[in-house]
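Audit log entry. Action: structure prediction of a protein-small molecule complex. Ligand: copper (II) ion. The ligand was supplied as SMILES and no pocket hint was given, so placement is left entirely to the predictor. Protonation state taken as written. Sequence taken verbatim from the request; no trimming, no tag removal. Recorded inputs:
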Amino acid sequence: MTDSVPKRSGLNSLFQPRAKGVLLVSLALLIIAVVAVPWPLQPSAPTTRRFTMVSRQFEFEPNTIQVNQGDTVIITLTADDVVHGFFLDGYGVKMRVEPGQSQTVQFVADKSGKFRYRCSVSCGTMHPFMLGELVVGPNTTFGRAVALIGVVAIGVTVYLWKFPLREPGESTTEVRSKK
Ligand SMILES: [Cu+2]
């Protein structure tokens, strides 16, 4: 803002340029927040993510995997001890592995959210607790673009509504203070 504001007295004169500044600063901060603040995962274009997973009584390792929405997920599962299974809630992905063998599944993580995976072959006493979690983060690149457009649109609308454009010569100070 380069234009100098005429000096005036009274509460209104104090308030108005300040309000304008506050609004602009808020808008700038919001834009920075949308663009720069790290969201759950780094923004990235859909990619292929490979995981090597081991199943044994009574756990999966790793027991949490993270991807971004739209990623192609390839999981290779081996069984260390006995026969184990793998079933992914929400996606219906499943496989079964014999001891010492491995199996691979591939799917596109097109739904965001958290999805349990569990052993699907009864493998012993603690079998029901043999669980893991797939975390599919939102598509942040797309999300940021939408959020940025939204913030800018709202900001410009509010700004123009509060401070309508005027001709260069016209006074910018009087209109708003009247009821
Ligand atoms: Cu099991």
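Audit: result stored. The helical segments are 11-36, 140-162. The longest helix spans residues 11-36.
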